[in-house]
Design a protein that fits this description.
- The complex is a heterodimer.
- In chain A, β2, α2 and β3 form a beta-alpha-beta unit.
- The longest helix of chain A is centred in the middle third of the chain and has 17 residues.
- The radius of gyration of chain A is 18 Å and the shape is globular.
- Chain A has 6 helices and 12 strands.
- Chain A has an 8-stranded mixed barrel with strand order 2-3-5-7-8-9-10-11, surrounded by 5 helices.
- Chain A is an alpha/beta fold.
- Chain B is of the alpha/beta class.
- Chain B is 25% helix and 24% strand.
- In chain B, β10 and β11 form a beta hairpin.
- The two termini of chain B are 23 Å apart.
- Classes of the chains: A alpha/beta, B alpha/beta.
- The interface between A and B is large, with 46 and 48 residues.
- Chain B: InterPro entries: GH (IPR017853), GH25_Enzymes (IPR051595), Glyco_hydro_25 (IPR002053).
Chain lengths: 284, 291
């Protein structure tokens, strides 16, 4: 079976920061104050329009997904899945769910991208965390061609922009050493808050931005790039996350669009040596 | 006849924005040994704002600012069809200080016939508690012959807040409670993402606290969103919005400001705000913006 290595979709599932609970440490609730926190309940997502020629749809997720779920997602009109491969809990660790989810996505015919939610407060440096992703996937027989780095939720990042820049740079440099394409999942506000608007990241780094008015169906923005404004070093985006915390095929995901012209058909992406390739699906 | 022009300006807006991060951000980097020239940081260039042309009777325009403005500039704002100014009366510098520029700004705005609201940009990392910071604002204005009726609290820029949502909630609650003790109407300047980041999406703030939310696509004219509340979605404890900041870091009357809209119930009410209120020869600010 011919498997083009193009199937190596960079799994950039930058788990949209839309789910605060996924990366954020839950606050200690002082019993003296009746503090209540509102939860966003995931409702069913609107359907993917059938005839949208210029954008393709994707989901991003940080939960395990079976092959039937991912087949359902494919049937629902999504062309790709962004899957989280690094979990920021504690000191940060390789997300062991990623391997099976990536395989399931691949066999469901979805383009597969990988994202990592790093742990900037960890004793492990940026490049060490990237190494964990690389090794974790490689050992499962998955070759990773690109990676998206989540830079969202300022409250999860240290206050020093310079330290954050160095941390991100450490990840990017290591990824480049492996020959990977790198993208950042962020927004202009996150980027300002976390890196003070860093502009010299390198113009080979792609952008996946997010803009929602809130969680759920009610908070969606249009599934196009019309609301993109240049920031940092980016003058054009590759992907946009336009909806957060919705149900698709009974799992909670965020929803994304990317320019369809850059899409490589999964069928073209076959690799002769029988390995799965993740990443590289999305281009600038 | 005393008209309550009390517009407690939501001062919170200006400092919350990433573009004003230099003025608001407390970045303690004493051991920063990184070669700064190796890192580029984006600067927003301030361009002139589009003119106010709306004839929509249901919204009025305002600006929010944290810089000194002359009487001529305030008159210019009025002529440019801004109905109100939101002035910062508390700055996050150091452990948090009363913003003395607010005194002349309020007097000039008053003379120009603008509605006046005040906002505070608190300092959550300070040794001063929330209520102590509110006291500095209240006493600062009162000692200068200015009576306030409402205050807006800036809750933006998660990078400037504590990491613990509960700590932040307690801090904000301290300010809100103190303000209510003074009989002030209280509003919060924030948005859904800030609120979620800073307070963990706190939903039990009392429902009499007003909301001033912001939404821009970026700084400057190209980053504006429509000057309407159409993009508002309920979050936290907020079911409705009173003010929206829709543009940031623009030049109006040679001032760098952010621009806002607020709902006015009756078109006549907007023009009537030019009659300012004095009580015992004191300027009264706040209360221009309500539900």
């Amino acid at each position: 079976m011919l498997l083009k290595s193009l199937a190596v979709l960079s799994v950039l599932a930058v788990a949209a920061q839309s789910v605060p609970a996924s990366a954020k440490v839950l606050p200690f609730v002082d019993s003296s104050l009746p503090v209540k926190f509102r939860q966003v309940i995931a409702e069913a997502a609107p359907r993917v329009p059938a005839n949208l020629a210029s954008y393709a749809f994707a989901v991003d997720l940080s939960v395990p997904a079976s092959q039937s779920t991912l087949q359902c997602i494919k049937q629902a009109g999504y062309a790709a899945a962004f899957i989280r491969a690094y979990n920021p809990a504690g000191q940060g660790s390789f997300d062991t769910n990623a391997c099976s989810t990536i395989q399931n996505a691949y066999y469901a015919g979805l383009g597969t991208e990988i994202y990592m939610t790093p742990q900037p407060a960890s004793s492990k440096q940026g490049y060490q965390q990237l190494d964990e992703v690389y090794q974790g996937l490689t050992q499962a027989g998955i070759t990773i061609r690109s990676v998206w780095i989540q830079v969202t939720s300022p409250t999860n990042w240290p206050a020093s922009a310079t330290n954050n820049v160095n941390f991100i740079n450490s990840i990017i440099s290591r990824a480049r050493q492996y020959g990977m394409t790198v993208g950042i999942y962020t927004s202009y506000y996150d980027w300002n808050q976390i890196t003070n608007g860093w502009t010299s990241i390198g113009n080979d780094v792609l952008l996946w931005y997010w803009n929602v008015l809130g969680g759920g169906v009610n908070g969606e923005t249009p599934a196009n790039f019309a609301d993109f404004r240049a920031f940092g070093c980016w003058t054009a985006p590759s992907v946009k996350q336009f909806a957060q915390v919705e149900q698709v095929c009974q799992i909670t995901v965020n929803r994304d669009v990317y320019a369809a012209g850059s899409m490589l058909k999964a069928a073209d992406a076959v690799q002769e040596d029988g390995k799965i390739y993740a990443g590289g699906f999305i281009h600038q | 006849m005393l008209k309550l022009v009390a517009l407690t300006l939501l001062a919170a807006l200006a400092s919350a924005q990433p573009q004003d991060v230099d003025s608001n951000r407390i970045v303690a980097l004493p051991q920063d040994d990184l070669d700064v020239s190796a890192i580029g940081f984006e600067k927003i260039e301030v361009k002139p704002a589009p003119a106010v042309v709306s004839v929509d009777a249901s919204y009025a325009y305002g600006v929010d600012l944290a810089v000194p403005a002359t009487l001529a500039q305030m008159n210019c704002l009025k002529t440019s069809r801004y109905a109100a100014v939101f002035l910062r009366a508390f700055a996050p510098t150091g452990s948090g200080v009363f913003d003395t520029t607010s005194v002349n700004n309020i007097r000039n705005a008053y003379s120009a016939g603008l509605g006046i609201e005040v906002y505070m940009t608190p300092q959550p990392l300070s040794s001063l508690q929330g209520y102590q910071q509110l006291d500095l604002l209240y006493n600062g204005l009162t000692n200068n012959g200015i009576t306030i009726r409402s205050v807006w609290i800036q809750v933006t820029s998660p990078a400037n807040w504590q990491k613990s949502a509960t700590t932040n909630v307690n801090f904000i609650n301290s300010i809100v409670s103190r303000a209510k003790q003074y009989g002030l109407t209280v509003g919060i300047y924030t948005n859904q993402y800030d609120w979620s980041q800073i307070t963990g999406n706190w939903a039990t703030l009392s429902s009499d606290v007003l909301l001033w939310y912001w939404h821009v696509l970026g700084g400057g004219v190209t980053g504006e969103t429509p000057a309407t509340f159409d993009d508002f979605r309920a979050f936290g404890s907020f079911k409705a919005a009173s003010v929206k900041q829709f543009a940031q870091v623009e030049s109006v009357c040679s001032l760098t400001v952010n621009r806002d809209v607020y709902a006015v119930g009756i078109p006549a009410a907007a023009s009537s705000s030019k009659k300012t209120i004095t009580e015992n020869n004191k300027i009264v600010v706040g209360g221009v913006v309500g539900f």
